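Materials and Methods. Structural model of D-mannonate dehydratase. The 402-residue sequence of D-mannonate dehydratase from Alteraurantiacibacter buctensis was retrieved and submitted for structure prediction as follows.
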Amino acid sequence: MKITSAKVIVTCPGRNFVTLKIETDQGVYGIGDATLNGREKAVVAYLEDHVIPCLIGRDPGRIEDTWQYLYRGAYWRRGPVTMRAIAAVDVALWDIKAKMAGMPLYQLLGGRSRDKVMVYGHANGADIASTVEAVGRYIDMGYQAIRAQTGIPGVEKAYGVGRGDMYYEPADAALPTETGWNTAKALDYIPKLFAKLRDTYGYEHHLLHDGHHRYTPLEAAQMGKALEPFRLFWFEDCTPAENQEAFKLVRQHTTTPLAVGEIFNTIWDCKDLIQNQLIDYIRATIVGAGGVTHLKRIADLASLYQVRTGCHGATDLSPVTMGTALHFDTWVPNFGVQEYMRHTPETDEVFPHDYSFAKGYMTCGENPGHGVDIDEALAAKYPYSPAQLPVARLEDGTMWNW
Ligand code: GCO
Ligand code: MG
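The predicted structure was written out as tokens:
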């Protein structure tokens, strides 16, 4: 069996997505997601100019060999652009293999470990009162796990607060939107949100919060401590993780569970965090961390240290990643939770899929492959539209982490 052609499809059905389609001499094709939010064109060029020419004529069944070929062969290792391109190839090849086998992807990974996949949704509001109401709406939809983000008085355009409950889209302008941040105000206000949430709804649901890399290690420790009485499922990206050592300080001071890794590309970004048991959940996902082949490796390392998975699943991860992640989640023994932000109806139409949501859980389909396709004719109707992620500044104008 041989790869005969491969192409990159860029489409913007409400937001930008980059998709790789690999075709074979047996008529079977595979689809992979290569979307890098705000930097899409860099991955398009990487795939078109440097990766696709190497794929033609290769045996699509040699998934591991192709992964090693692209990773070692580039010489320049790791990084979000390279690893997303590798992920797209990897996922498309797993799709082809599963279609050839006539099996849903999770069967090839080792079969079902659970009946359904618990997902968390994003509730947000301009202030505590409206965020509490938003969480209530998620509870009514059957969610077991809900992330809560609130606007903070005196902070302009606080992170995580969208125009409505269901759709949150931070990449909102061709040039980065300027947003504000104030850690002292957050340390004061956010624990009050969780106090109110537990007061209103009790302790039956899992509550999550995202710090989005904003706190120093000591501030993260203070926030973790302040949130302890409200028993969070996790406190995410409490501090930037380039320096994995930083988490030691946070860990020594709080029992609030920690999650990190949506921006990680490889096992090397989380090796020390996992081996030193500094985190509880690893957020690396299919498109971000080199595809199914590499995420499996990360999950296996994590399982040795009782670290569970919590795959990133924001709207910038296309339905192709969502579908593939659900197969992964159905198999992975050390599963924790899956993030699920709904795509717009236009996106769902461009990417026909067989996964479904019911009462806080998702299930992958039983079709051969990962179960997600792309309608190329429809995709062509939505041309690329430049959109970048925001930036954040402190009140005195200092650049901060968005
Ligand atoms: C999350 C995230 C995202 C990111 C987004 C950036 O936890 O879901 O932090 O919303 O900000 O994926 O592109
Ligand atoms: Mg996050």
